[in-house]
Write a structure and sequence with these properties.
- There is one protein chain.
- By secondary structure, the protein is mainly alpha-helical.
- The radius of gyration is 25 Å and the shape is elongated.
Length: 78
């Protein structure tokens, strides 16, 4: 399931006409995309993200340093 718009799904599958997508979808599934979606709850109700993950990914990026390349290793000559 997805909460994306019908037009967005249409373009994502490579079609350029929402009308053609709706016609093909209705022919395949027997109902329009909007009616099909109405049968199911929003996709967001299925997604469960643990609080620890939300905390890490929801935190602002406060890094104040730049990653630099490490200097080449020096080797001892025999």
């Amino acid at each position: 399931m997805t909460d994306r718009s019908v037009a967005d799904v249409c373009l994502s599958v490579g079609l350029q006409s929402v009308g053609s997508f709706t016609t093909s979808f209705t022919r395949t599934f027997g109902v329009s995309p909007t009616a099909y979606r109405a049968r199911f709850p929003p996709a967001a109700t299925h997604a469960h993200v643990p609080w620890c993950v939300r905390r890490v990914y929801g935190a602002p990026n406060t890094a104040r340093f730049e990653k630099t390349a490490r200097p080449p290793r020096r080797t001892l000559s025999a």
